[in-house]
Amino acid sequence: MELTLSKCFRSPYKATVAFIALTVACLIAASANGEQAWALRESGTSSELHSVSFTPNGQQGWAVGFGGTILATTNGGQTWVPQASGTSNELHSVSFTPDGQNGFAVGFGGTILAATNGGQTWVKQESATPNELYAVSIASGGRYGWIVGFDGTILSTTNGGKIWAPQVSGTSNELRSVSFTSDGQIGWAVGFGGAILSTTNGGKTWLKQESGTSSELHSVSITQNGRYGWAVGFGGTIINN
User: Fold this and answer.
1) CA distance 160 to 142
2) Average pLDDT over residues 78-88
3) CA-to-CA distance for 218 and 179, rounded, in angstroms?
4) What are the φ and ψ backbone dihedral angles of 158, each rounded to 5 degrees?
5) Which of 28, 32, 48, 158 lies 20 to 30 A from 108 at CA?
6) What is the pLDDT of residue 131?
7) pLDDT (tens digit, 9 = 90+) per residue, 111-157?
8) In sequence order, what are the residues at sequence separation of 6 or more whose Cβ sits closer than 8 angstroms to the Cβ of residue 219?
9) Which residue spans within the chain are E strands per DSSP?
10) Cα distance between residue 183 and residue 200, in whole Å
11) Which residues lie below 8 Å from residue 19, measured CB to CB, with a gap of 6+?
């Protein structure tokens, strides 16, 4: 219904009421359309931050970056506090389980850090590689995990990170992102040269897929049933299956 204000503006009182009603209507419409403002938060660091991970309730979160920086929040990002990483290596990626207890952070020089208490303590794990690690994905409450990195590196764990074992990727391309379904069976990894790899058995075997591009691919996301996926990269590239 079209709102006409001409009659309302004949008196200051009616004009004020009309303005308030119109403002409320606009706010409700914006909320209904999912429009929300982004607010700049104080991180407490000038270090470049590369990755962030939040629990489904949007309250617990972690951010990682240069100099081994790890920040944590328990109030939806309103305030951030540093956590001791025990490393000065650059960290590229962080991922936590939905309960916010088990998490991994990975980065330069084959660095793998693990937490089992929400990040109150981070423990360095043996990666058995000096390669730079760019992304980590975890499943099944943190029991299963995959890490990808330089020179086609793929590492996996089936015991919460106690042991990380290499998987055969079949490529020497740098891999920048990995994503798995929650059951840890279906996963995709992407990287340089338009590389896309897929697995349906937890990474025991990885198969090359035709991406249709030679652009660097930096991130991949898949649906929980593993049927659909999207990858993005250099030059505004967006591809999906």
Assistant:
1) 6
2) 97
3) 12
4) -120, 10
5) 158
6) 97
7) 999 999 999 999 999 999 999 999 999 997 889 999 999 999 999 99
8) 176, 177, 190, 231, 232, 233
9) 49-54, 61-65, 70-73, 81-82, 91-96, 103-107, 112-115, 123-125, 133-139, 144-149, 154-157, 165-166, 175-180, 187-191, 196-199, 207-209, 217-222, 229-233, 237-240
10) 11
11) none
Q: Position of tokens 């929400």?
A: 118
Q: Are strands 154-157 and 144-149 parallel, antiparallel or unpaired?
A: antiparallel
142 token code pair: 């943190």
Amino acid at position 81, single letter: V
Q: Token pair for residue 239?
A: 């591809």
pLDDT at 224: 87
pLDDT, position 34: 57
pLDDT in tens, 16-60: 444 444 444 443 444 445 567 899 999 999 999 999 999 999 999
Q: Element (H or E) spanning 182, and its range?
A: none
Is residue 73 a contact partner of residue 52, using CB atoms and an 8 Å limit?
no
